[in-house]
Design brief:
The protein has helices spanning about 45-55, 75-95, 105-110, 115-125, 130-135, 140-155, and strands at about 1-5, 15-20, 25-30, 35, 45, 60-65, 100. With about 160 residues, it is of the alpha/beta class. The two termini are about 10 Å apart.
Length: about 160
């Protein structure tokens, strides 16, 4: 069984986790959210997301619920909302059931503190030691969170 996890937004990530016949879960692949354009014209590359999904063939997807961030400006909030909508549309067009989950639900499951991105990355490295290269940098927190969301979904 393959599950897709998504940490939404331009700086987020996609991850596919596989559990086969009660075996230990494995991280199949994790990537940054693919984007096109730069600066104010940067947007989600929907075609690349579709290709990623078609390649890995997950049976379900979990995406973290999008929410406005405190002190986030109008234009960055709009850019974030647009990115989340594009990601959800790409998944839906691949005919995969999508479940929106609260950040507090999957973070509580993994016993992670509120907004600390580094603790999520460290937890993902602990659970997926073979994926060290994909999660090695601090800026890989989107990939790490997507991996934890996918594994959370696989374990439910």
């Amino acid at each position: 069984m393959r599950v897709l996890g998504i940490d939404p937004g331009i700086q987020g990530g996609l991850a596919v986790v596989e559990i086969a016949d009660g075996a230990v879960a494995g991280l199949v692949e994790c990537i940054d959210i693919p984007v096109v354009g730069t600066g104010a014209k940067e947007r989600v590359d929907v075609a690349a997301i579709r290709k990623f999904i078609d390649w890995h063939k997950p049976i379900r997807a979990l995406i973290e619920r999008a929410q406005a961030m405190p002190k986030q400006g109008a234009s960055s909030g709009f850019k974030y909302g647009r990115a989340v909508g594009a990601i959800e549309a790409a998944i839906t067009l691949c005919s995969i059931p999508v479940e929106i989950i609260e950040p507090s639900a999957w973070k509580k499951f993994w016993k992670l503190p509120g907004k600390d991105k580094e603790s999520g990355r460290q937890k993902a490295l602990q659970l997926f030691p073979a994926a060290h290269a994909a999660l090695a940098r601090k800026k890989d927190h989107g990939r790490a969170e997507a991996s934890l969301i996918a594994l959370y979904g696989a374990k439910l």
